[in-house]
Amino acid sequence: MSRRRTLVLWIGTRLRWSGRKALLKRNGYEVTPAKSEREACAVLATFAVDAVILDAEASELNPQQLVCRMKQIKPHIPILVCAAAETTTTDRFSGADAVVLKHDPPARLVQVLNHLLNVRFPFFTRWFGNWRYRAGA
After folding, report:
1. Over the chain, what is the mean pLDDT?
2. For the chain, where are the E strands, in sequence order?
3. What is the DSSP letter of 120?
């Protein structure tokens, strides 16, 4: 039996959150929501998380600062940013591993997430990083 992937998903509006959660669950992902930046960082620090999806417009802090803070906690975890503006690039979120526009088709979110998890950050790399973090290495 294969291990299900766990995500921290933090989306601002309830409607957008339920739609993204249903999409990810249909594609075999286990979803763990975080309602605030503090909660997202606590979940990231406490649990074996495989990826983070961050809504750039939902952040009360600068989303760039949150991405950097999460990368300090677990640098081996891929972070996918959902942004509204077409002018948004990975330069604006220099620590993010990918940026998806909110008006992109839903399949694009899943496609980019699959790419991050299977190509850029293979399972062993994420598992070993989580193990090292828990061991305090």
Report:
1. 78
2. 5-10, 29-33, 51-55, 79-83, 98-101
3. I
